[in-house]
Fold these 2 entries.
Entry 1:
Amino acid sequence: MLKKKNLIFLGAPGAGKGTFSAILKEQHPFAHISTGDILRAEIAKGTELGKQASAIMSRGELVPDEIVAGMVKARLAQPDCNSGFILDGFPRTINQADLLGQALTDAGRKLDAVIYFKVEDEMLLKRLTARISCKKCGKIYNKLFSPPKSEKACDDCDGELFQRADDSIETAKERLKVFYAQTQPLIEYYEKKGLLVAITETEKEKVHSALLKELC
Ligand code: AMP
């Protein structure tokens, strides 16, 4: 049984936030709240928000704080978050963290831990540019480290595999820059609140055990 269930996953793009959200969901019924996934779904649906976000995302920049914070606030109010949630890729700025604090207070919820996945840039770029995911179920693979049986179809659901447009080397480098400029200050922000847990392992099994040790 996990003791810490209301979590933020913090880390640069490619640090493993999505991968470990999926792994932890096998052990506990977390609501997995990925702002990137929500925005990509808006783009796929062709909504006004999707159109606005699409250009920003393809440049590797951040969607305005109020928009993402509004999406997360609405999501946190849903009953499946009662059993615990993982915020994956949110907050990404100090302002978003402040807005989240307010939204959690309004929803009568509180954070148990902020997990920071610390990974070197070289490894991040390697992972990002080799990342492919399933269009149907969202499963993430890596052509180098965890390849699917066939590069075209998902092992689990046979869905089509694709590379995210923002995982090109140029955009990936820009996203890392944005991480260091705008998101890195959150490490100190949550350290001061006594919530930060840094995971420095990078091997899948070791990260998994470190996570369980921290959350149990
Ligand atoms: P991700 O899937 O988390 O890597 O996010 C992909 C892209 O979506 C980011 O590069 C941003 O353009 C946008 N995005 C996702 N989450 C946020 C956020 N919390 N704040 C602003 N933009 C975001």
Entry 2:
Amino acid sequence: MDSAGRYAPSPSGDLHVGNLRTALLAWMFARATGRRFRLRVEDLDRARSGSAQRQLADLAALGIAWDGDVVVQSDHAVQYAEALETLRERGLVYECFCTRREIAEAASAPHAAPGAYPGTCRNLDDAERAQRRASGRPPALRLRAGVDAFTVHDVLAGDWTGLVDDLVLVRNDGTVAYNFAVVLDDGEMGIDQVVRGDDLLASSPRQAYLATVLGLTPPTYVHVPLVLGPTGDRLAKRDGAVTLRELVAAGHSAADVLGLIADSLGLPGVRSAAGLLAAFDPAGLPRAPWTFSAPVTHPA
Ligand code: GLU
């Protein structure tokens, strides 16, 4: 059995320093623990043409090397359909006709678990289902979950228990949902270590539970702090020169950008990926978000 970590960007635009920092951390955690390091392009939605190639080139420019072929989610339609069929045969899939608004209203009822799908369509009888189908709204497909919470192990957050609900497997436009695709692909790729931004910590109990339903072992997680822009919000395009290409266009080298990221990881003076890996100490990782402001340019 492979043992591997991964980085799984959505090809929706160029990677900014926050994404690049997470990618470097994922690469370092994998390499420092003797794992392979895989890349996966998560292009089921929000894909912009040419973006994946640019992202891969930027990762390579920083000195990140990966193992094996790059996996592309849109190549996996057959695997997703097969896994869905298996769950369906086990009676674990149901149609959900709810609109966002209906879910929000039901979820705000007294005693509803905050953020959980309230199960409105879970036990529709045949007549009710026929009536909903006749309304013309295509259904999403949900997992009939057997638990309402699950505990994951996170290297930074420790044992972390979070909500599990009847999560969406296929959206009502027919797109395979992120949570389902991630779990299937991580399983298929032999991923047993997931390093990513801590905005996804709350999704990890759902994903880990779904893995167990599919007969897979949940990975070890490392949810790392996000990078913030000068306003204190999550770093974004509006914050100026934030991508590698923008920073290079402003006169900084890839080594300069790597040096900024190394600084933020408490490793000043390091200017290469190999140097980062040599100095990497997971126990010494800063636990607070890094606030990034584009460095002043010094014209040559
Ligand atoms: N594709 C997701 C993103 O770019 C990351 C998913 C994951 O790492 O599980 O936010």
